[in-house]
Design goal:
Its cofactor is Mg(2+). With 1288 residues, the protein is α/β, with parallel strands linked by helices. It is built from 41 helices and 28 strands. A six-stranded mixed sheet has the order 6-10-11-4-12-13. The longest helix has 52 residues.
């Protein structure tokens, strides 16, 4: 497989010196690049060896395997948490030392502050010793601030990196487990569920590591602070600590409630993403059935439940944040109320030492400790969810009994093959065609009997599978390139001409990061991959059904019977004309082997096979019907044939015969906006959540809360100042001979203090809850608008945007809007207002503090801009490098059987690791850029604290103790708060890129309205007359025209067959009829101009049986009748008509049985019959069949044709043909060529002659048997005696 990206730059952190490591100076060159231009993937640094996905994953995997073995011995369930602790406890424990140093300094700093204020309280201009001592304390305050800045960010960087390692290791293990999922397990889980594990659950490891150490540091710090407070204010401190102690369990309770909501939300999110996955995968069918509304209702209902849980947890978060901001106010209020009521007088040093000590412990106790509890409980849920997921060549089969989910499939052949041979099992429709191969591959577990495989297997799946990468890497599949062999395989698989016409040949990128191949090209690449492997036994699951007759014959002769002629091959096929070349034929019916032998032996034996062959032998195929057989991602109409011409063959015999090849469609690169986030986006975001009046109310409430917050602090300082004046100038009165000092009115000062505290609480809680309400509603509104926009956008959008990209917006980006963004946004606003308040208070006390503040603010703003230029790009790179991780997981789950058959698990695991490393590179940069910024901000704050501390000493004659206390305590709090506020503003801007991405999808181009004022009559169309009048059609404004000036009329009740080569515009005709893109010209149905009515009015009145049958997760009833318009009797009758009644009756809950994702517990033929049942139920006058029988066997084909003849006798039927016997009894046949068509209108024998003349060259290639077969089918289906036809 080709490398994911070019060689990355060496990571400079590996060789950086100590100073550079501490201050992250090694990042400076990156910031310089980021400031000048947009950062690209090539600018990222190589992941450090110790952070590599493979190394981390294997390390954790080996410990997990050991735990599983040990648990099995001890008869207990293995514990993933235990393994994680065992793997990471040592490096993580060392980081605890950083936390300890940080918290010790936080406790010591207020002591220095108190001593400094005491110098001013006892100020003596002549006492130089006291002055030198004060300078020492000022240096202590400054130094402790600087050390705090350094240790705090080093700690955070390393714990976040540990979190990253845990996440990467878990992702590695989840992917490894996904590659080993059995078919039964795949039925129980969904792609959406595994994607959600990778996008949301593992992210909890990034968060939990940050706070975990505070679980033990918190109580220690609280004990130290209690001791210091006791010394300072005596027993009154117990009152404040009591409030803290009460707050701790309250916060812990919040944490528990969070986890409860989180587990419920996660299940609903899984459900929503799974539904979205199906909607995006099956969007073509949903549009053609006009089923947007039931799916919209389904998603909206899941989303409504999810949002109600998110809203509840957001209110909890709001309470949590408000209590965090109010905590310090309540604690200080209670402490000083008790202190003054006990008869003490307050002083500046006591007030500010107490406030500072409480500030130090408050952050740990009310924020970090509860966060640790909350994140720990969330992570435990994630861990629980992850744990639940996580010779001579021959084949011998004897008395084998296998079950797909206990639906019995029996195979009873003796030894199958032990020499080079072609074995062709011929399965009828109700035999899940791949079951025999699945059992040989080991995908279908066998219950009884013998299954022995000697030799290496290789496999070509029925639904062609390609993974994102180059065409060459898809064919080589990890093998070395041998040019001669490779050329030979390309020629044998008819790919040579295609490769020559591609812009970059076989190095053209396909899949999520490149071009889209047509179904026929995918099928040939799929076959070439199997052929290129040097295996002993080849399992080929119907590789010929996806290509036209000519190519099919070439593949059979040059590839299956050419290159592979000396190898054992097991070929499952419905194409009975190839059976004569088989060494052995195995006939399977309802899971049993009914006959086995050579072609001539079976014809002589008289078993059911002979009648099967005579009645149902497949006629030669319509020319060019290269079918678009597709994976679940694929389209339903053969839309890739839009710009494609037919697949190519350069005949190996003479090298001259040549057909035009198919160009490929390229996938557009994911948009990644540049520059700053505009104010307009913030307005859009907020207006999505509330109207202007509510927003004005929110703003007022914010300012009121902040005013109350500031006034409370100011009042305390004012009270201390008044008390000091009284102490200095205190008047003493004599009462009853006792000296009594005059005191302040306690009721007045305490009353106002209590009132302000109450106002702070009320406004604080109200603003928090209201803001969360607005922002969560904004998330809901934007999600609904994005979903509606996705439903209404033309189909073209889904052809050029891979499924992973669309799902990423619904999983990761909406996840950000639901949880992370509201919290960060509210936090930023509250901190921003606090910073303004702090500066205002400090400036009112000491106006000169503004002098050093102005240059610092200017530098701050420049630094922020400088940082954001790079940070925003890093964040966007992180988003875009995450998509391939999900895409790789998705495509691997779709091609699971192929990967396992080729034993390519290890290589795919390595590619996954490479994608993970690419994402780790951007995540690592995201972590270090944040720390680079924070260290610089905190360093500047330390400078500000130093200036303030020494400034107070230099101006010692002009300042009061209270002013110094207020200025310094605020400067110290500002230090942590300022940098956090600036970083939160940057974080909000980073997260707004998710809003930007969602808003981008809310403004997608919309197709025509579903309903218009002009409504057709209720019984329309009553006849089914379709008229094309000079119709031209293109899938996009800049795309090629695929229908040009087409004029045609399809009469009521007429059966019209449509044939033509790939790219001739057969399916485009249907797309024009359904208005999947708006055609030019006029299309009338029963005289009504289709472009004037709504899309739903049009699409609901036509039925379509698509080529690729699409079923959705949900009950069988919902799949047949999502609007609940029909009775049970109608549904059972429809199932009876298509011979599925017995199958559905055998299901555990009959009609209420929930189907697996994409209906994978039904065979392709059965899924096609469900689509036919839908058409039967709709009873429309117009039926379109788009190559519906391409992937089914002749018996199912005949059943479908018979049902159509009987049930749709009164309807106009347009059939895009893959097999001639499908359209042989049509009234007329439309033969499409690029930009032209021929309508063959003669009836009877002349019709047959016309067809045979038109495809004479094709029929020739099938020999006499194919020719006779055609005539037989025709004579059986029409009342035309065969005698009239020439016998020779």
């Amino acid at each position: 497989m080709e490398p994911v990206k070019k060689d990355a730059k060496t990571n400079p952190s590996a060789t950086a010196n100590l100073f550079s490591q501490v201050f992250f100076c090694w990042l400076n060159p990156l910031f310089r690049i980021g400031y000048k231009r947009r950062l690209e993937e090539d600018d990222m640094y190589k992941v450090l060896p110790e952070d590599g996905s493979e190394r981390l994953g294997e390390e954790l995997q080996s410990l997990w395997d050991h735990e599983v073995q040990k648990a099995a011995k001890d008869l207990r369930t293995p514990k993933l948490t235990k393994v994680l602790i065992k793997c990471y406890w040592k490096p993580y424990a060392v980081l605890g030392i950083f936390t300890l140093i940080e918290e010790v300094i936080k406790v010591i700093q207020p002591v220095f502050l108190g001593k400094l204020i005491q110098y001013f309280e006892k100020y003596d201009p002549d006492n130089m010793d006291a002055l030198y001592e004060a300078f020492g304390y000022a240096a202590g305050v400054s130094l402790s601030t600087l050390i705090l800045a350094i240790t705090h960010h080093l700690y955070f960087f390393h714990v976040q990196r540990t979190g990253m390692k845990m996440r990467v290791a878990m992702c590695h293990m989840i992917y490894k487990k996904a590659l080993c999922l059995s078919s039964a397990a795949m039925g129980k889980t969904t792609t959406g569920q595994i994607v959600n594990l990778l996008s949301n659950d593992v992210n909890k490891f990034d968060e939990v590591t940050i706070f975990l150490h505070f679980l033990w540091v918190g109580p220690l710090q609280a004990a130290a602070v209690l001791g210091l407070l006791w010394v300072e204010i005596g027993p009154s401190c117990l009152a404040g600590m009591a409030v803290l102690v009460i707050l701790m369990p309250t916060q812990t309770m919040f944490g528990r409630l969070f986890s409860k909501f989180r587990s419920k939300t996660a299940a609903l999110t899984d459900n929503r993403i799974r539904t979205m996955n199906e909607v995006v995968s099956g969007i073509r069918i949903i549009k053609m059935y006009a089923w947007e509304k039931p799916f919209s209702a389904l998603v909206n209902e899941v989303r409504r439940k999810e949002i109600s849980k998110i809203m509840s947890s957001s209110y909890l978060r709001g309470l949590n944040m408000a209590s965090f901001f109010a905590a310090s106010k309540i604690i200080v209020f209670i402490t000083f109320t008790v202190y003054v009521l006990l008869g003490n007088t307050i002083s500046a040093s006591r007030v500010f030492v107490t406030v500072s000590l409480y500030s130090a412990v408050r952050l740990t106790v009310t924020l970090f400790f509860p966060s640790a509890v909350e994140k720990l409980s969330e992570t435990r849920i994630s861990v629980r969810r992850i744990k639940e997921e996580k010779q001579e060549p021959s084949v011998e089969i004897q008395d084998l009994i296998c079950y797909w989910d206990k639906v019995n499939v029996q195979l009873l052949p003796p030894r199958l093959l032990d020499k080079p041979t072609v074995l062709s099992p011929v399965p009828p429709s109700h035999f899940p065609q791949s079951s025999l191969l699945s059992s040989i591959l080991g995908e279908l577990p066998h219950d009884k009997g013998v299954l022995k495989v000697k030799g290496q297997l290789t496999y070509a799946s029925q639904q062609p599978w390609v993974f994102p990468g180059t065409i060459r890497s898809n064919i080589l599949f990890g093998k070395e390139l041998h040019p001669q062999k490779y050329e030979k395989v390309l020629r044998a698989c008819a790919l040579k001409r295609d490769m020559e016409l591609l812009p970059e040949g076989d190095l053209t990128l396909i899949g999520d990061r490149g071009a889209t191949l047509s179904g026929g090209q995918k099928a040939r690449v799929n076959l070439a991959r199997a052929v290129y492997q040097d295996a002993d036994i080849y399992l080929l699951d119907d590789p010929l059904s996806a290509v036209d007759a000519e190519v099919g014959r070439h593949l059979f002769e040059q590839c299956i019977c050419g290159i592979l002629k000396n190898k054992p091959r097991i070929l499952v096929t419905h194409q009975l004309q190839y059976l004569q070349a088989a060494n052995q034929i195995l006939v399977l019916k309802e899971g049993h082997m009914v006959a086995r032998g050579t072609y001539s032996e079976l014809q002589r034996s008289g078993v059911d096979f002979t009648s099967l062959l005579k009645r149902e032998e497949e006629g030669p195929q319509a020319p060019g019907a290269e079918t678009e057989s597709r994976s679940p991602r694929s389209r339903t109409l053969s839309q890739n044939s839009v710009v494609s011409h037919t697949s190519s063959i350069r005949s190996v015999k003479d090298g001259t015969e040549q057909l035009p090849a198919e160009p490929v469609q390229t996938v557009v690169e994911e948009s990644r906006s540049e520059g700053t986030i505009g104010v307009g986006l913030y307005v859009k975001y907020l207006k999505a959540g509330a109207n202007i009046l509510v927003l004005i109310g929110v703003v007022l409430l914010q300012f009121l809360a902040q005013a109350a917050y500031i006034l409370q602090d100011w009042w305390l300082a004012y009270w201390a100042g008044e008390q000091e004046k009284l102490n200095v100038n205190g008047t003493v009165t004599v009462q009853n001979g006792v000296n009594v000092t005059e005191e302040l009115s306690l009721d007045f000062y305490l009353g106002i203090y209590a009132g302000l505290t109450g106002a702070t609480l009320i406004f604080g809680f109200a603003r928090s809850l209201l803001m969360f309400n607005v922002l969560v509603k904004a998330a809901q509104s934007l999600h609904n608008r994005m979903f509606n926009s996705i439903l209404r956008t033309p189909v073209r959008f889904f052809d050029i945007n891979p499924i992973g990209r669309v799902l990423n917006r619904f999983s990761k980006d909406i996840g950000q809007l639901d949880a992370a963004l509201p919290w960060t946004f509210v936090d930023f606003i509250q901190i921003f207002l606090q910073i303004i308040g702090v500066i205002a208070v400090a400036a009112s006390v000491i106006p000169w503090i503004l002098i050093p503040l102005v240059p610092l603010v200017i530098v701050f703003l420049f630094l922020r801009r400088y940082f954001l230029q790079t940070s925003r790009d890093v964040k966007r790179l992180e988003s875009t490098t995450r998509s391939p991780v999900f895409s790789h997981l998705s495509s691997s789950l779709q091609g699971l059987w192929t990967i396992r058959a080729f034993r390519a698990e290890e290589r795919f695991q390595n590619t996954f690791d490479t994608y993970q490393d690419l994402h780790s590179e951007s995540w690592f940069l995201f972590l270090v850029t944040s720390r680079w910024f924070a260290v610089r901000l905190d360093g500047m704050c330390a400078v500000f604290v130093t200036i303030t501390a020494f400034g107070c000493l230099l101006l010692r004659d002009q300042v009061e103790a209270g002013s110094v206390g207020l200025a310094l305590s605020y400067a110290v709090t500002l230090m942590g708060m300022f940098q956090w506020g600036v970083r939160q503003s940057a974080e909000v801007e980073n997260m707004m890129t998710s809003v930007e991405r969602v808003v981008e999808y809310t403004e997608l181009e919309s197709e025509a309205p579903w309903e218009t004022q002009k409504r057709p009559p209720p019984e329309w169309p009553s006849q089914g007359l379709i008229t094309f009048d000079r119709v031209s059609f293109s899938y996009s404004s800049d795309g090629p025209v695929v229908l040009k000036d087409m004029k045609a009329m399809f009469r009521p009740k007429e059966k019209v067959g449509i044939v033509g080569r790939t790219g001739a515009g057969k399916s485009s005709l249907v797309s024009a009829l359904f208005r999947l893109a708006e055609p030019e010209g006029r299309i009338y149905i029963d005289g009504v101009l289709t472009s004037e009515i709504g899309l739903h009015d049009l699409r609901q009145k036509m039925s379509i049986i698509p080529q690729d049958p699409v079923l959705f997760t949900g009950t069988m009833r919902k799949n047949l009748d999502p609007f609940s318009q029909h009775t049970d009797e109608d549904l059972w009758n429809a199932l009876q008509e298509v011979q599925l009644k017995s199958v559905v009756e055998e299901l555990p809950n009959k009609m209420e049985t929930v189907l697996a994702e994409s209906g994978s517990n039904f065979s392709v033929g059965q899924r096609q019959l469900v689509c036919l049942a839908r058409a039967v139920l709709r009873k429309n006058r117009i039926l379109i069949i788009d190559e519906a029988t391409a992937n089914v066997d002749p018996r199912t084909d005949e059943l479908i044709q018979k049902t159509i003849r009987e049930k749709f006798r009164e309807c106009t039927v347009l059939t895009i043909a893959h097999r001639l016997n499908t359209i042989i009894d049509s009234d007329r046949i439309l033969v499409r060529a690029l930009h032209s068509y021929t309508m063959i209108t003669q009836l009877g024998t002349c019709l047959l002659y016309s067809i045979l003349c038109f495809i004479y060259s094709t029929v020739q290639k099938f020999g006499v048997s194919g020719f006779v077969c055609l005539i037989t089918v025709y004579s059986c289906s029409e009342a035309n005696p065969c005698e009239k036809l020439p016998r020779n």
